[in-house]
Design goal:
8-stranded parallel β-sheet, Rossmann fold, alpha/beta, 908 residues, single chain, Jelly Rolls, 6-stranded antiparallel β-sheet, 37 strands, globular, 23 helices
Length: 908
Amino acid sequence: MKKIITAILAAAVTAGTFSTVPFTSAAGSSTYEFEDGTITSEGENKTSVIELSGADGGKAVDLKDSGDSVTVEARSENDGMQTISIRYSQPYDEGGKYQNIIVNGSSTGELFFGYTGDGKFRTATASVPLKKGSNTITVEASWGWTILDSLTVGAVQSPAASSAASSAGRANPVISRGVPAYSGKSDSAASGNDDKYYTSWNSSAEDYLAYDLSGVPAEQRKQVLAVWYNNGTYDNIGAYVNKADEPVDYVIEVNKAPGGSYPSSGWQKAAEVSGNSLSSRQHLIDMEGCNWIRMRVTKASGEKVSLNLDIHDASGGVNDSWVFFGDSITAGGMGNAYGTGFATYINQTDSTFFPAQQNGGIGGITSRDGKENIDRWLSGSPVKYVSIAYGTNDCWGNPNNTSAYYSNTKYMIDAVLKAGKIPVLPKIPYSTNPDVGSNVGYYNAVIDKLYSEYGDSLVHGPDFDEYFRNNTRGLGQDGVHPNSEGYDGMRKLWAKTMYDNVYSQLPAEDITEEPASDTPPVTVQSSGSGFHVSGQKIIDANGNELIMRGVNVPHAWFQSNTEQTLRAVAAKGCNTVRVVCEDGGSGRSTSADELRKIIGWCKENKLVCVLEVHDATGKDSISDILAAAKYWTGVKDILNENTEYVIVNIANEWVGKWDSSTWAQGYQQAIKMIRDAGIRNMLMVDAAGWGQYGTSIKEKGAEVFSSDPDKNVVYSIHFYGTAGKDAQTIKSNIDGALSAGAPVLAGEFGYYHSDGDVDEAYLMSYCDEKGLGYLAWSWKGNGGGVEYLDLVNDWDGRSLTEWGEIYFSSMKGSEISSIFTGEKAEPVTEALAEPTALKASKPGDANCDDNINIADAVAILQFVANQAKYPLGDMGELNADCDGVRGITGNDAIAVQKYDAGVITSFS
C-alpha cells in the first residue's frame, strides 16, 4: 500500500539531465506532434492542447485524468518491432507517472515518465510492434498528469545480425549494487556501489573497499568483472591533464569467508597493478567459491583516493563492457558521473543489460595520440567493445590531413581486432566553427571508406555529423564542444545506435529471456510441516487447501489497537490477516515480543497470520530487501515455531520501478539469506512496481521460485488503479502471474485509489473462479489522502465504511483453516492422461499459408502483443515457436525475419 505516495517515491528518483529546448530527431526516423493528434477527455480535469515554451512548435498536450488519451497516426516503412520515443514534461510528481501505450488498438504495456521539473523535457522510449504503412499510437492516461510534446518512430531494426555483434552472446549485469560494503578508514563505502555515480567512496590513500557478495547466487559470481571509475583525465597525456585522488598501486583480492561480518584474514590476491596512470580499469576475476571481493589501494595520486567500484557477473565471459577512446568531446560526454550515462540509457531501453563503460576521452589529442597509445591501453584489458572517436582536432584548421587520419584510424581498428575485441567507429561531430565544420566532411568520407573496407567487422557508431547539423542548439559557445543538452543528446544517440546495431542483433538463442507458457509449468510439491505449495495451491499442515479471505491490519502504526482489531476481523468471517510490521529501516523495528503476541492473538481468533515489513516499500536498492531478510533471520526461532500458522511476506512492495530483473535478483538473494538461516515458513513475494507490476512475476517468477530450495513461494499482486483498473487488466495480470507456476493472490486491493478506479467486483469474482485468495486494504488508519480505503469507522468494526460495506457483502468462500479445526485431508492419487503429441507442420509458417515471410513475423508479433485479438490457432502456434526455445516470443519473429532475409536456412 502506498501510504504517502509522493514522499516515498521521491527517494527513488534517478538523477539525470533534462533538455529545455526541442531537438530534431536523427535520420531514419519520423516525428509526430501530439497536439495534431486526436484527444479523448472524459475526466474532471480536461486534457487539452496547451502552449508551452520549449515544446516543438510551442505546443503540447497536457494529459490529465486516468482514461484520457491522445492518439497520433504514424507511418512505418516496415513490419516488425520498432522503437518509439516520446518527448514529454512531467512537473507534477517526483516519483514519476505510468501511462498506457496502445498500438493499433492493442495494449503494449505501460511506460514510465520520470519527473522533469517545470519547463524541462525528457524522452521515454519503448519497443512496439508496428505494421508497414499507417499505425495508430495512443498514450492513455493510467496515472495521468503528464505533458506530451512529440512522438518519434525510429528506424526499423535489421533482421540480419552482423558478425561483429554476433559474438556478444549475453549480458554482464551488475551484481554489487547495494550489497553490504566495508572500508577500513571511511564511512562512505556504500557510496562506492550505489546507483549514483556522482557519489563515490572517498578515503585516505591506503585503505580498502570491500563487498560482501554472499547474498548473490553462487552461479552469478563464479567469475566477475571488477570495474572501477575515477573522474579524472583518462591518461597522463595531452595538454589538459586533470587528475585527483586516483589509485596508483592497488590489488584486487577475494575471500572465502562466510558473509555477514568483514573478515580480517584469508584474503587472496586476484589482480595487482603498480604505477597506474588511468582513471578507470577493468579486471576479470576468478571468484569461484568466494563470498568477498575488495580493492585495496596502497598508493594514490594524492593523499586521498576516490572511486566507484562495480562488480559484474562474467560467469559466461566478458560480453558487455565498453571503452570510449577519443578527444575532449568524448571526455566531456561519456562519463557516468554527470547526467544519465550510456549504461543507464541502455538499461532503460532493455533492463537485461547494464554495461561496464569506461570514459577514455582525453582533451586536446588527435588520432596520432590514439595510435601511439592504443596498444598500451588495451594490454591486459578484458574490454569487449572499443570506440575510436578522434578527428575533431585532426581536422581543426587542416583540410589536408586526411591521409594521416586514415592511417592512424586504420591502425587502431587493426589493433582492436588483433586484441580479439570489437571496434566501433562513430562519425566526427559537425561544428559551427568554420575552422572545423568546413573540414568535417573530408574526414567523415574517410570513415565511410573504412566502413566499406571492414564491413561487418566494424560496428557503425552514431552519425554525429548529421545529428549536430540538425541540432546546432546542442553546441556550446565555441561551436565545437557540446553544451550539457548536447552531451546528453550524444549519450542518448550512443545508446540508441548501439542498441540497434549491437544489442538487438544478438542471436536469439543467446538472449537471456524466459518465455512465458500458456500452460503453467509443473512444480514439485514442497515439503514441510507448515503451509506449503502444491502446484498452484496453498496447502496447510493438515493437507487441506487454504484460500485466503481477509484484510490487512496496520499494526506498525497502531500497535495498541491490534488485539481488538484481530478479534473484530475474525468476527467478520475472515480466515487470514496480513499484519504490517517494521524491520528498522524507517526508525522502528517490530520486536520479537510483539511478534509473539500478534501470532498468539491470530491463533486465538483462528486467523492465518501473514507477517510483512513495510520499510522497503517502493525502494529499488537490493540493500533494502536484504535488510528485510536480515530482520526475519533475527526472529527465525519464533517463525520456525509457527510454520503451521505463519506465512512470511518478505517485504511490502519492494521495487517501485517496473523492473523485473532487479526484482528477481533481489528476491533470489533475500530468499537465500532466509533459507540459509534455517527459516522454513512459506514465503510470500510482492510483485514489482509498488506491487502492481504483475508482469514481473510472469517474466521472472519461475526463476525466483526455483531459487528457493524449499520450493515454497507464493506471489502477491496489489490491485489498485493500475493493476486493477478493468477486467481485462486484472485477468491479464492474474493469468500472466499464474504462468510462473506458483500460487498467486491479491495481497492488497481497494475499490478506488489516487491512480484510478478499481474493478473490485471483477477481481473478487475472478479470484473466486480461479480459487485464489484476496486480502483487502485495510482495516483502519489510512492517511495521506487515502482515508477512503478504511474498511471500518471504529477499531471494533461495529460501523462499516462504504468500502467495508462493499467488501464484506461480496466476500465469499471464507473457510477457517483446518490447522484450527483439526480436519485431515484424505490422500488422493490421480493418474495423468498421456498427452497427444502434435508436431509443427512447417516451422516459421505462423499464418499457415504454406509460405514463410515477413507476414509470419508480423503475425507472431501481434500474437505476442494480444493473444486474444490475434489468435494463431493450434497449428499456427506450433509453427510460430521456431527459434529453438520453448514458448512464443519476439525472438521467434526475429528468426522468421532472418530466414526470410536468407541469413539462416533452417530453424532450430
